[in-house]
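Weekly structure sync, notes
Attendees: PL (lead), two postdocs, one rotation student
Agenda item 3: pending single-chain targets
PL asked that the sequence for the first pending target be pasted directly into the notes so everyone works from the same version. It is reproduced below exactly as submitted, 82 residues in total.
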Amino acid sequence: MQVYRDALSGDWESVKQKQRRLVDFYDAAYPSGDTAYAVVKNVLQCLGICSARVISPHRTILPEQGKALDAIVDQFADVSEG
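Predicted structure, written out during the meeting:
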């Protein structure tokens, strides 16, 4: 991840900016679902990493919540770039 490479090179200002952006992503994404686990699984599905399937006791993200998360992932695409 770029933040790691920036840290290795000593570019601490870039690291701070990326960290703030990542916190903004978390703040936007986590209220989108009933549990953080379901939100993380949905975001990972948006990134093509795994399915959004969750098991009990977690509840599945509702379709409108999924659309909101898709938009958030698009808005914060720079956060997930390698």
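Discussion points:
- Residues 2-80 form one domain.
- Residues 47 and 77 are 9 Å apart (CA to CA).
Action: rotation student to compare against the earlier draft before next sync.
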